[in-house]
Amino acid sequence: MYETQTQSKKYRQLDKSLGAFFKTDDLYSQLYQKHFKKTYAGKPTKKYLRILEQIQKAESIPYHEIEGFL
Rounded CA gap, 39 and 8, in Å? Predict the structure, then answer.
């Protein structure tokens, strides 16, 4: 069984909308790991771009919306 299959429908919806906000600490720790490569051959890596996209998504969530869910 997958982890999301055991979660309630309401919790899955919250995770979709606010999950990025609560995972920002993990994203920043991945970004600043010791041997993390941001570029390869002068181009940004796919992993780096994915992490930046998730961080931007998390920072774009208005604070009052987060308080509303809690």
Answer: 39
Please report the pLDDT score of residue 4 as a whole number. 83
Q: Tell me: pLDDT of 43 over 90.
A: yes
Which residue type sits at 14? L
Mean pLDDT of the 15-37 span:
88
**Angle subtended at Cα 9 by Cα 2 and Cα 19, rounded to the nearest 5 degrees:** 75
- CA gap 61, 24 in Å, rounded: 12
Q: Please state the φ and ψ torsions of residue 61, each to the nearest 5 degrees.
A: -75, 125
* Rounded Cα gap, residues 37 and 2, in angstroms: 30
Predicted TM-score (pTM) of the model is: 0.71
